[in-house]
Structure formats: structure tokens, C-alpha cells
Amino acid sequence: MTQPLAPQRYSSRLSVIGEDTRVARALPHRARRTVGAWCFLDHAGPVQFAPGKGMHVGAHPHIGLQTFTWLIEGEVVHRDSLGNEQVIRPGQVNLMTAGRGIAHTEDSVLDGTRLHAAQLWIALPEGERRREPAFQNHPDLPIVETGGFRATVLAGSTLGRTSPARVYTPLVGIDLDAAGAARTEVPLEPGFEHAALVLRGAATVGGEALAPGEWLYFAPGRSALELRCDAPAHLLLVGGEPMDEPVLIWWNFVARTQDEMQAAQDDWNAGRFAAVRAGSPAAPLVAPTLSGVQLRSGA
Hints:
The protein is mainly beta. Helix content is 4%, strand content 49%. It has 1 helix and 26 strands. A 7-stranded antiparallel beta sheet has the order 1-22-19-24-17-14-13, with no helix packed on it. The chain has a 7-stranded antiparallel beta sheet with strand order 2-3-4-11-6-9-12, with no helix packed on it. Strands 5-10-7-8 form a 4-stranded antiparallel beta sheet, with no helix packed on it. A hairpin with a 2-residue loop joins strand 13 and strand 14. The two termini are 29 Å apart.
């Protein structure tokens, strides 16, 4: 029997969203742009904001993707150009399908509180990337207790359960939280590639020690993955069928050509996106220039 390839280890990099909220950005990485259709992964927190401070991301646009927000601590209000205003609370997912174009804001409901979240993007396939925009809040997600881990099925199907989140490519997302020492084996779809990220604590994933700030990539070919921790730990496992399309990622856009990116930038800066429902205290974002930038595919 062919042995699966050894996992590859990558470092997240520090980035800033909104006014001054620091995040650890795992994807896109210069050496690996996507994992399945997952093309962006920010880990925010856990952080305690100072009085008068919070996460405030002003109005900004998206095309060609789904934004996938998994909230662990805190409360965040989403407002978008479809007229939605939705508070997301711990244990919930906000799924926004940008399609041909949408704009939104994200703000802490109260300043001076805690925040812990994962913000992901899913690249839409060619046949879906110009669809009408949409938004759903998912307050009830399947939960499975396994070997001391509390596993929440965020996307796709695993452990005998299926997430209600509507996605357009074969993929999976699982949050695994352990209050103490735990050990389990998670079944994998062998045709998927996967990534594991520790959100808090330390764990051993597929025989590899892992702590916050790094993540592991597992190539297709595995049918299961062992997870183990000796103390409280919190992990995120995502995966999907490798994308066979050239995907460009720039600023808040996912597209196929640089001309599409330029058109979206021009439309946003010229005010041709629909307006976001009022309420955010943060100023709208201005798209950076594409002049002199040569984008490269994430596929």
C-alpha cells in the first residue's frame, strides 16, 4: 500500500484588518495559495480589546467567493448591500456568497470585549462565480463528541453529520475543541487535500506537533487523521477537492484574470457597488492600486 505523503508545515503571517485588529493569516501563502476551494484563512484572537476598542472593518466589496465567518468568542454585526443586518454569536457561521458582487461591513457589537474567530473564503467555481449574491446565518451546526473532542461540522459532511451551509465545491470544515487531554481519529475523504490549524493550545496532528502560528498541509491520499492533545486545545481542520481552475486572489476579490480584478477595483472606487446598510462607524475601504502588480494563480 502506498504511504501518504508527509505533511508540509507553513507559518502564518501577521496582518491587520479594519482599524487595528491583528490576525494570523494562514492562507493564501506564497507557497500554497489554496486548500481545496478554501483560499483565505485568518485567525483573529483570542483577544481582549481595550475600552473603546473593537473590530471595525468598514464597507468593502467582494466578487467570486464566499466569506465564511466562524465565531468562537464575542459578538459581531454584519451589514451588507443586500440590506441584511445580522449579529453572529459564538458557535455560529455567517456565510456570504459574493457571486457577481456584494459589499459589507463587520463590527464588534460592543467595544472593550473579547473576540476569537476564524474568517475564511471559499473560491467559487467557474459556473457559480457570477451568481446572484446571498447571505445566510447558521445558528445551529451539527456537533459530535469524539474521543474528548467536541467536533462542530462547519461545512460539508463528516463524522456522520452534514453542515447546513450551502457551498458549491466538494469541501469540509471541522472545529475541534477539547477541554482536556483527548485523542481521536477523524475520517478523511482520500480525494481531498487538508489543512490543520491550532487556534489555541497545542496538539499533535497526524503525528506532527502543532501550536498556534503554524499550520500543516496534507496532500490527497489519506483516509483518516489522528488528533491528540495532552491539555485543553482548539483546532480547525479544513479540506476539499483540489481546484483545477486558475484562481487569482487580490485584495477582497477572487477572479480568473487581472482585467476582472481591475474592473472590480474601478467599480468599487467609482461607487458602482450597491451601498451597505448604514451603521458601521468605520470608513469605507479604498481599493489599493493594481498598477505594477502582477498577479499569479492560486491553482
